[in-house]
Amino acid sequence: LISLDSWCLDPTAYLEKHPEARKVGLDGKAAAKTVCSTVMATDPEWMSLLRDTLIPAFLEKYGHPRHVNWDYEAPVMTSELACFCPRCLASFQAAFPEAGAGVTPEKIQQQHVPQWVAFMNQRMAAIAGQFRDALHRHQPGIEFSVYTGYHSDFTKHHYGVDWSLLRDKIDRAMCGYGRPLDNLEATRAVIGGMPFTLGIIAQPYEIEKRMPPTWFRPADVMRRASDATGGVLLYNYSTLDSRSFQSIARVSRVMKDYGPYFVAHDVSRRAEIVTPGWSDSEREVLAGADGSLLVVLMNTGRGAKAYAVQLPAGHGAETPLAGELAAGDFAVLQAVRK
């Protein structure tokens, strides 16, 4: 994980040299170890320090990982990028002239929240691009991702992220949890074809809670895998039991055996498969480049459920087309052209 916190990317030396570059919060106080976001986005000296010193030190400290993630869930008024110094207020006014002269933190909160949300989203995207470029520069082939909520007005405001601005700034998009279908598909649409990883969580995830957490049923893990194009984010390993790991193993084997279906996530032929009594939330149909179909049935309910799969003309399957799934279980069958 990478972040702008001083334990991760320490700006102390820069701020000792440039104390005027400290971030200013809503209360007018300068932060001790956070750099103004206008400085981050525009100052060549800071950007050179990040690129040539801080990022290489980060990679060395963490053993040159193959994947670096920025978990960014920060409200636009209080995040580490939310600076209200004269530089940032002038930059905001230049970006949104309709805000008028004499912009203040109070006026922003009272009159210009939508514009400030857009401003902060742009800042986040700019810093994400800096992270990715520096990581790629020093370790070619490394993957850089962002984790946050699904694409929505809520995520823009409360998490500080507009996914539509990240299409050319990151290598992988990571979202979770739950399955708000409209927001999920909106995210998929704006990120383009980059790998899309979706999360599943065991509650409670805090290890200090003295109650047994939920477990990952096979059908629930498969639902996330069938929606994603880049695998599943599992949270949190320290709270999982053997049942969850068995579910992960089963889904992993299916993804290994039928990987191209999941990566392509071509659902254009979904209507060709008929499964009476099963809603689209309980099934997925993934098309293969060779004309085959992968049918995934997921019993996410609390009771056993019978199924009978009707294939399109000219297709056959080696596995049974009818049966019963226990609660929380899934079934996969491949329909190939005869």
Please explain how this structure is put together.
This protein is an alpha/beta fold. It has eleven helices and 13 strands. It is about 35% helix and about 20% strand. About 35% of the residues are buried. Helix 3 (about 45-60) packs across helix 6 and helix 9 (about 220-225) packs parallel to helix 10 (about 240-255). The protein has helices at about 10-15, 35-40, 45-60, 85-95, 105-110, 115-140, 155-160, 180-190, 220-225, 240-255, 260-265, and strands at about 20-25, 30-35, 65-70, 145-150, 170-175, 195-200, 230-235, 285, 295-300, 305-310, 315, 320-325, 330-335. The longest helix has 26 residues, at about 115-140. It has a five-stranded parallel sheet with strand order 3-4-5-6-7. A four-stranded antiparallel sheet has the order 8-9-13-11. It has a two-stranded antiparallel ribbon with strand order 1-2.
What key attributes describe this structure?
338 residues; alpha/beta; four-stranded antiparallel beta sheet; 11 helices
